[in-house]
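Dear support,

I submitted the protein below through the web form. The confirmation email said the job was done, but the results page showed an empty box. After a refresh the structure appeared. I'm attaching both so you can tell me whether what I see now is the final result or a partial one.
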Amino acid sequence: MSAVLTGAGRALPTTIEQDAAWDGFFAEHYAGIRAAKRVFAGSGVRRRHAVANPIDEDISGWSTGARMQRYVEEALPLGKQAVAAALDDAGLAPGDVGLFAVATCTGYATPGLDIRLASDLGMPPGLQRLLVGHMGCYAAIPGLAAVGDYVTARSRPAVLLCCELTSLHVQPAVRELDQVVAHALFSDAAAAVVLEPGARGRRLAGVVARTDASTADHMTWDVTDLGFRMGLSPRVPDVLSRHVGDVVDELLTGAGLRLEDVAGWAVHPGGPRILDVVRDQLGLAEEQLAASRHVLAEHGNCSSATVLLVLEELAGVDGPVVAMAFGPGLTLYAALFLPA
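What the results page shows now:
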């Protein structure tokens, strides 16, 4: 019995206009870097979300411990709202859930969000739980694969929550341009999906992964004494261009489909150049990436939650849908959804 996506929900903290974030904080933060304003203007982000609004509070000097305490305080209500909305969309109660998976790379605590939220939402004490940690922007897809396997094997519903609070990791001002790029793109969000056995909706029909370990230093996410620090090489789009075609071909061939059969593309908008590479390598029309561009513009790059936001944008699309995300490794993950 196949796993079918039957519900989705999201929770977004305070919205900040990109220009306001620049004028109110980052212009002074990066006063010594001439290219910084151009990076912010060319990010493709118009507005984003933050539990720690840099205009109101500068946390760039906070310890990692203080940031983790704030993460728990902020993530719990956001996660609860997103999961409750997804269960409501699927027409399920918390007691119906057999597996609850949480993906995050921006905060850690033990007991974790999975335990705290399960208890708060009223999920059963025999609930199985899974934490998908520190995988980065692509974590939603291996998370979907894991909960999908559970649903198929156990014939019980499962929930995946992706909760990322990147605003808690604003770094002290440094001259490295990768920090400017990260601060221009990243945003906060919680997004959840429900998968059920043999229901009507979108069936998870396949998952393909590819990791190019020779480029592992191109994208990093390091735990420091002052939060988590992003390392981001400008060569990332070039690496993706070498692999994205093969990944999509393997995914579609396994289902007996061709590129032109795909009705919707949910591509993780890691940045404008990432989307340009996917478009050009796959020969897609610009309008086929409209949902991804829209999510980037209106919400920014919310790490693992982002591809779920794009999938939600494509809820009305009939036919096969491909979801793709990219992150440290360098790693590409792709999932195929078919009508069920």
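Response: this is the final, complete result; the empty box was a page-load delay. The radius of gyration is 19 Å.
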